[in-house]
Amino acid sequence: MSSKGWFEKAAHTRRKEKKRNPKAKPFGHISHNVSKLLQLLAARELAEKTKDAQPFVIINYLNPGFCVTELSRSMTGMAKQVMGAMQAAFAWTAEEGSRTLVLATIAGKESHGAYLSDGVISPWVLFPAFLPPLIDALLPY
């Protein structure tokens, strides 16, 4: 499972943290976003390496979208209020988000190596324009 926006968040957050503390090491949300990116790249590579394997196993990766869950239960104050408002306005229910998981399990061979997001199968492409911020996000401090 993955998150949409992994790349932009990782690159932006890293630059922001580096400006605030040039000697800081990656942690928390930075590591989370980079780990999501690495997960996508690993799944894509695994799909490529197994495309001719027998027996054939479908490998795809997905993003269920922004869903109302209990992940924000430890938030307090204004952060909790903002998250609640965002969930009320934009988030899917957990059941709606789970539809992408169901799609991933029933999709046919056409989904092998594809990125499933918000209930839609689409090939995932790392555009060349993404590379400089991507490299910046992955470089150590």
Walk me through what this model shows.
With 141 residues, the protein is mostly helical. The protein has one domain. The chain is built from five helices and three strands. It has helices at residues 6-20, 28-49, 77-90, 94-106, 131-138; strands spanning 61-63, 115-117, 120-122. A hairpin with a 2-residue loop joins strand 2 and strand 3. The longest helix has 22 residues, at 28-49. The protein is flat.
Write out key terms for the chains shown.
3-stranded mixed sheet; single chain; mainly alpha; 141 residues
How do the strands and helices of this protein lay out in sequence?
Elements: H1 6-20, H2 28-49, E1 61-63, H3 77-90, H4 94-106, E2 115-117, E3 120-122, H5 131-138
Parallel strand pairs: 1-2
Antiparallel strand pairs: 2-3
Helix pairs in contact: 1-2, 1-5
Give Rg in angstroms.
17 Å
Outline: flat
Strand content: 5-15%
How many structural domains does the protein architecture include? 1
Poorly predicted ranges? none
Output the helix-strand order. HHEHHEEH
Number of strands: 3
Distance from first to last alpha carbon? 28 Å
- Determine the structural class based on helices, strands and strand pairing: mainly alpha
Question: What is the overall pLDDT average?
Answer: 77
The biggest beta sheet is recorded as: 3 strands, mixed
Number of helices: 5
Percentage of residues in helical conformation: 40-55%
